[in-house]
Hints:
Blueprint: H1 3-30, H2 38-60, H3 79-84, H4 86-105, H5 108-114, H6 118-130, H7 136-155, H8 161-184, H9 192-214, H10 216-221, H11 229-255, H12 258-278, H13 286-316
Amino acid sequence: MGEKARIALVIVSYFVVSISMVFMNKSLLSRSTSIPAPFFVTWYQCVVTAFICWALGKIGKYTSESSYLRQFPEQHYDGRTAFSIMPLSLIFVSMITFNNLCLKYVKVSFYLVARSLTIVFNVLLSYLLLHIYTSVPVLVCCSIVIFGFYIGSEGEMDFSLMGTLFGVCSSLFVSLNSIFTKKMIPRVRNNSWTLCYYNNMNSSLLFLPLILIFERKTILEYAASFFSPMFWSIMTLAGVFGFLIGIVTILQIKLTSPLTHNISGTAKACVQTMIAVSVFHERITLRSVIGTCCVLFGTFMYSMVRNREMDKGKKDSPKLTPS
């Protein structure tokens, strides 16, 4: 298979996996035949992801050095290491919890707008936590996204304040997650799969008291779903897709570039909204369309500007020459 064919296959896989995961989670959190318990649904997906990391590590141990599975290290849950990355796990739990709560209360066509403030929080937190100043072009892109968020929220026919607030919180924790991931990954020898394993193992433990406190009655009320093969099939498949999204994201960045990945994510969000409107017949107003377009345009321009600034920074950095 040629390089262009491989790139095309990875991008298509990213679209399919990411969009499918959104609609599966929406189905799990909204259908009457399911259990409307975001903590429980997310806990199960974390368990599945952690198990896959552990299983691939065991299998990879007995494969050849050239095998793709060899990149997955054998996993052992060490208490000290797990405790050291607990701050990241708390942020990770908050991120995926607010993400699923947002998806529970808003339509998929509005999901993009509800979670559109991630780049705004990236800029704000970079300044507050890392003391990194932002250029005027980046601030202009953020202003376009904020405008799109406002217009999209105003024009939403079935507007949910609760769902929108959950989306804003999800955006905040997505930004925090990226910052803390860079801080914590050295503690697992810079291995992203080991970090994924520990994060999901920690999250599985952190979700248990939340399930017992907030969702015990709901789970008992919908106990009939536990006997539904369809329910467990979608639950398990969503967990598998949650793991696969990590693989296709890494492959896409490796075969292309971070900029291409960001542009691909923007295009994917556009396709996701179109599917929600055309296939699932979700209602959308002209103001919502304008807001969505502003968010997509602002996000796209942000990716372009940041990539240009990073390239310029590399060129301007002093090069060491041997004496």
